Amino acid sequence: MSYSIGPGPLTPAVRAIIYINVGVYAVLLILSGFVTWLGLIPELVVTRGFVWQVVTYQFVHTEVFHILFNMLWVWMFGVDLERRWGTVPFAKYYLIVGTTAGVATVVVSLLPFAWAQSSYWAVTIGASGAGYGLMLAWAIVFPHRSIYFFGIVPIPARVFALITGAISLSMAISSGGNSNIAHVAHLAGLGAGWLYLKTPRPTFPSAPPRPPRPDYIRRVH
How far apart are CA 14 and CA 212, in angstroms? Predict the structure, then answer.
């Protein structure tokens, strides 16, 4: 009898995402000052045009447990999705969801509320926004699969996604913006993933089929 843990070997896009994150983490161990260039700081995006930060922040980690947990989520939920969708559609979804979470972080920081304005000068880093989007997609695509909540209680994937989203929302409300966890990015990742998967895609008529080629008589010269 054999046993397996998790979804199995790394798929191409999941492997690339993990390698990039680990590579950036290794670089920042030596050049820590680059966090202000690669992390997401809304004030720099708005006033200095550092627009790339809404993309690069999701590949930045400075703590070992942070990157381990996020890459575990990428592996857990990403492998099955990439196998189902294919490498290019999966990578596209990952980048769109993570980038949308970054844009949402900037937009929320501009709101005229104290809890929102505190994030205007803060640095947001990590793949959690994209990770939450992967979790939601996994729950939609595989709703009846089980996942162990806190590693103990098996619950359906869709229930796990609802509980995790509710926890993030309650923590965002209760913290009042005074938290070192990017709850806005988490919730934005969930929302972006849901909209992306539920929005109908335009369909285009396919080109008419080519007429069959005639059978030619083979002649030997």
Answer: 42
CA 125 vs CA 30, 121, 204: distances in Å: 17, 13, 39
Within 8 A by CB and 6+ apart from 108, the residues are 116, 119, 184
CATH classification of 12-197 is 3.30.1360.120, yes or no? no
Helix axes 12-30, 87-109, angle to 10 degrees: 50
Q: What angle do CA 42, 162, 190 make, to 5 degrees?
A: 30
- Selection from 134, 133, 131, 167 nearest residue 149 by Cα: 167
Q: pLDDT tens digits, residue range 41-80?
A: 999 999 999 999 999 999 999 999 999 999 999 999 999 9
Q: Where are the domains of the chain?
A: 12-197
Q: What is the DSSP letter of 95?
A: H
Those residues with Cβ within 8 angstroms of residue 63's Cβ, 6 or more apart along the chain or in another chain: none
Phi, psi of 147 (to 5 degrees): -135, 145
